[in-house]
Amino acid sequence: MAEFRTLDDLDVAGARVLVRADLNVPMQDGRVGDLTRLERLVPTIKELAGKHARVILLSHFGRPQGRAVPALSLRPVAAALADCLGGLPVAFAEDCVGPSAEAAVTALAEGGVLVLENLRFHGGEEQNDGEFAAALAALGDVYVNDAFSAAHRAHASTEKLALLLPAAAGRLMEEELAALAAALGNPKRPLAAIVGGAKISSKLDLLGNLVAQVDVLVIGGAMANIFLNALGHDVGRSLCEHEMAATAREIAERAKAVGCRLVLPLDVVVAPALEAGVATQVSDIAAVPADQMILDVGPASVKDILGRLESCQTLVWNGPLGAFEVAPFDEGTNAVARQVAAWSRAGQLMSVAGGGDTVAALRRAGVMDDLSYVSSAGGAFLEWLEGKTLPGVAALAGGG
Questions:
Q1: Residue 356 appears among annotated catalytic residues
Q2: Is 37 marked active-site?
Q3: Beta-carbon neighbour count of residue 54 at 10 Å?
Q4: Active site residue: 16, 20, 37, 153, which one?
């Protein structure tokens, strides 16, 4: 955390503090369907308000493509945020720049909280436009970024704005970066990674970076089918990018060359279709029936994975081991997740997980709160795992 300031370094009493938050939450029938992202913002908001700052929240919501779309207004999100803050009043401005935003900021009392309308109602946000960033900067005295989940985007509110005002990381951003640094920056070894998902083509950068860094790399999900196929196993009717076989072999050879242990399934759970209540069977990877689909790892695979992880001190997890959305194909992921959670609670393992499907799978397994850290970020978490520079993080080091 030495590269940039945190809330500890700011004198915010009476100051207008622009907080880049992530209020891009799922909605159901006009109401927020999952409060996780809002709840994670509470510590920063309450701390700033408690120090008599004027707290002004900036966020995108959906993809309005530079137009004011009523269905993508942040007004209902502001109301849900007030509930998360224990009833602390949250004002709302009809725009994020211009007269209505300026009037709302002027009316905000010390210790007050204000949500500005959707940043993406203006094309300048996604264009990282200097004039739009300057208009935002005119509303505040200090900039705080508490939206790691948007840090991979070089947008006006995540990058350019940070260069125009004194900039610092909020508590959520600080916590996220500390966890990520502990996982890959300077981890305790042995270091393991679990990578799942459907396509190897979407995670080539990720696998390339991890192979060079981790001691144990567990491949799960449909991605494992590509490696099994590349090694000569028939994967039946399973989802598989057959054209990526050569790439999978290259990754396996690279892992061997650098001493990274690549862990693939020993057995799998197969079924004729991905449906609830369908007949299933456990198959050795050398005997997958031609008319069946691989939909989960089998019990021998779970035992092997846990055996590999038991001696590890750090784990990074991105992607489930099977088609967890449909029972019983969640059993492999659940079993590994619960044991990882137990090791984490006992202080035996530093575990960091992230990505939309990963978070959903951990929630389904009932262990969301038991791993060392579960990132609420999606694309930003993945790009960090790939070793890429995140514009929103880099900008904090050079803020005004």
A1: yes
A2: yes
A3: 25
A4: 37
